[in-house]
Structure formats: C-alpha cells, structure tokens
Amino acid sequence: MKTLSTARSLAYFLDELWFTEAALHADPDAADLAPDFDAAIDRWESVAQRERAARRGIVRAEAVVSVRDAQLDGTTTRFAGVVLVEAANDRRSSFYRRFFSEAPSTFVTRNLRDQSEQTRDRIVPEILKLSENSLLRRFADPLAAQAKAALQALTSRTKARGENATVVSDVTDWKESVNRLRTTTYAELLKRSAERNLGREWPETFFRRDESSAAVDDEPAPAPTPEPQPA
C-alpha cells in the first residue's frame, strides 16, 4: 500500500476510496473498517464542490480583469487621438504632455492598476480643468468609470486568489486525512492478517497496487494561488 501523492486530483482520491471501501465491504474479516471510508467518501463531495467553486472564481475574476483592461485601453487610445489633434499633432507640446508624458501605446501596456490609478488621479483631473466646450471633456466620465471598474476587478481577483489559497489548503488537508486513514487501516489489516493467519498478501488486496490502472484524472489538482501578475 502506497501513500497517495497530494498532487493527484480529487477524482483520483475518490477512485482509491471507492476501491478500498468496496473491497472492505466484500470481506467479512474487514467489513467493520468500511464505514470510515464511507464517511471519507461523503466528505469528498463538499471538498470537491469548494475546489470547483474556487477555480471558477479565479477564472471568472481573470476574465473580468481582461475585459476591463481592454475597455480602458480602447477609451484611452481614442482619447489620445483627440488629444493629438487638439495639440496640433505636436507630441512635444505642453498641452499634449499634460495627458501623456509617454507614448499612449506605452501607457496602455502598463500594469492595469498603475494605468487605472494614473487615469483616475492624473488624466481625468486634467480633463476636468478644460473648458466645457473642449472635445476632450466627453472622455472624463468614461475614463473615470472604466478606471474605477478596472480597480474593482483587480480587487475581486485578489479576493478570489485569497479564497482559492484557503481552499487549496483545505483540499490538501483532506487528502492527507485520506492517507492517514489508509495507513491506519492497513496497519489494522496487517494485525488481523497475523492474528487470523490470513496470509501476508491479504492486506494488499484492499488497495489498488498498480497506479497505472487508475482512471485518468478528470479534474486537475488544485493549482497554487497564482503570483500577482502585472495586469
């Protein structure tokens, strides 16, 4: 009987539990040990649901960040085009540099938090200083709203990553508890084998011996919490 790697998926662990639980129930000399495996199988569902929910939360949060980034980039690029016209195509003019000290194409490639904060704290206030009839004034509200939405999306992603980290830890704890159950059960089976002269191989029959015979994982192992990305 081998210890199961915690890198294996929850689906793999469930297969191992099913195998041992069924094997124990099938043998009168070991059937009384099966209920603990029944209980572990029952706990699997809630653990798996939490893992899937955490993974989904990460993916959805990343999707929203991607959309918010694209929206802000699009509006910023259109805004930059109008600024250039207002500056008489002079990128070195003081008017142009009030809004862009670097090329707009470079500005929109900054990490999303920095871009959003710069938009909120520097660009939008400069726009609001312009006269009401300036063509640039119509960009103030969209840029402010999109910068705010982008920052909110980043906050939601951070929260999702934190929740995922907690779930990853809980999943690992559950897997380790399964390994402890398997180990203590195996020890009890060895004891009974010796006491009842059931043979040296008897305890092994309750655990799958060839890992290659196990079903291919249909769920990925819970990934570690991703490191914060520039976007």
Question: What are the salient characteristics of this protein?
Answer:
231 residues, single chain, mainly alpha, rod-shaped, 6 helices
SSE inventory with pairings:
Layout: H1 10-26, H2 34-86, H3 94-99, H4 104-107, H5 112-128, H6 140-196
Helix pairs in contact: 1-2, 2-6, 5-6
Describe the model.
It is a single chain. With 231 residues, this protein is mainly α. Helices cover 67% and strands 0% of the residues. The longest helix is centred in the last third of the chain and has 57 residues, at 140-196. It is rod-shaped.
Terminal-residue CA separation = 46 Å
Provide the succession of SSEs. Answer: HHHHHH
- Secondary-structure-derived class: mainly alpha
Oligomer: single chain
- The 3D shape can be described as rod-shaped
Helix fraction?
55-70%
Number of strands: 0
Q: Report the mean per-residue pLDDT as an integer.
A: 91
Instruction: Compute the CA-based radius of gyration.
Output: 29 Å
Q: Which spans have pLDDT < 50 for at least 5 consecutive residues? A: 212-216, 218-227
H/I helix tally: 6
